[in-house]
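Still learning. Any example?
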Amino acid sequence: MKGLNTSLLMVLLFSASCAHKMDEADLIIHNAQIYTMDDNNTVVEAMAVKDGKILELGAERQIMNKYYADEVVDLMKRPVYPGFIDAHGHILSYGKMLMQADLSGCKSFDEVIDRVKKYADKEHPKVIFGRGWDQTEWENPEFPTREKLDELFPNTPVVLYRIDGHAALVNFKALDLAGVNENSQIDGGEFIVKDGRLTGMLIDNAMSKVLSVLPEFSDEETEKALLLANEHLIRYGITTVDDAGTDLPTTDMMRRLQNEKKFKLRVYAMMVPSKENLDHFAVEGPYKDDRMNIRSFKFMADGALGSWGACLKEPYSDRTGDHHHGALTVDMKFFAECAELMVESGFQMNTHCIGDSAAKLVLAIYAKNLESQHDSRWRIEHAQVMDPNDFYYFSDFSILPSVQPTHAISDMNWAELRIGAARLKGAYAYKSLLKAKGLIALGTDFPVESPDPIMTFYTAVFRKDKNGNPPSGFLPEQALTREEALRGMTIWAAYSNFEENEKGTLEKGKLADFVVLSHDLLKVSEKDILRAYIFSTYINGERVYSYE
């Protein structure tokens, strides 16, 4: 009996000793399929997190025997991926859209008018804003005109943005306040006139003429918009947004809200090249904390394809009568000077280029400034219509392509009509761009498109809309593999932000930003991808969204 008691005591002492040796964590994720997205594509079962960072990953028994935590989550074999990084979005614009008349999906101009009336009757705003209409989806694919808006809202300014944000329909009240008439002109934009009369359509820089005389969002409205955007984006599993075109007041407000724990998203800020921003950061240089990274500037070289504003080398195929090429929206002398300033001040240069002419001009200036530079990671945003003869710039000068796969699907029904079959060979050419550079960053351009990363993944891989059309895919030779698409939404996007050492993969010491899905995007059928949803989102080890 004495020997038995001694043995029991030894077991108890050993067990107690083992318990004391267990390491403390804040969170343990286990019984999962964790895709680390590291160089070896390692998949593990469990992960321990402490102080917002990953302590260790490994087999179920390894992690469960080594760590204890107050929060232990059994994921029941669900897939886990690094938090999705949207490499090109517009946070404040998205929040504003959520507060304004939603015109997305309208099948006619009559439906646009109906939604605007309902919004105005409910909200009684001093200025009526709406966004999301797309005339290419209507039976008559021509731009609308202002007559109905003038009739319904003679005393209230109305601004209705096209889905791409590069064109807007306004009423006479808005035009009158801005002093716009039939003879008005502006560089990089157009006030459309038909039969000697303003139609109310404004293209690109013309919009600024009207917007400059309308009331701006108050601080309270801006904060509400930012928090609304944050709430919606984390539901999509997005943990970092590359905010493509922001300013100091907005980044300052986001930083305050982040510090107050209200705004959970991490932000990679691309500043607009205003005098205020350029002067400030030329002196101060880049800024970075654990939630906000300001080290790039966003330039606009041209407009959008859907509103005939993208700058093309040859005329639009459906505008041959007036030899319309689109237009540059930036003075190239100013752009070249800014490129030199970006080099001097250590900032990344990211430029919106949709047309092949805009892309060529920008790439040439990039090349001139990057010849002696290493690892500058300057980016071409959209790269939507490219001359294949210009792809070499990406490899020769380490320029990064940043694209939005859902654009290809939104445009596929009219793209060939607009640019012709020959130019289509260099359009939405994501596989070619990947081969040219070796990586590609993926985003959505929200609110132009939905921020849903599952649709980004689906359209990048299958090149189809949510109804499975076209059956063989749109330009299927430009499809990415599943792994390439997922890397474009995680580690390659992180690399495009100089943040690959802290996020984009799930590895020891990196930020505990990850997303749990209902379905395994890398394994399930094509149809099941469209059934997938975000089960939970974690930022800094904190569960910021849960489906349950």
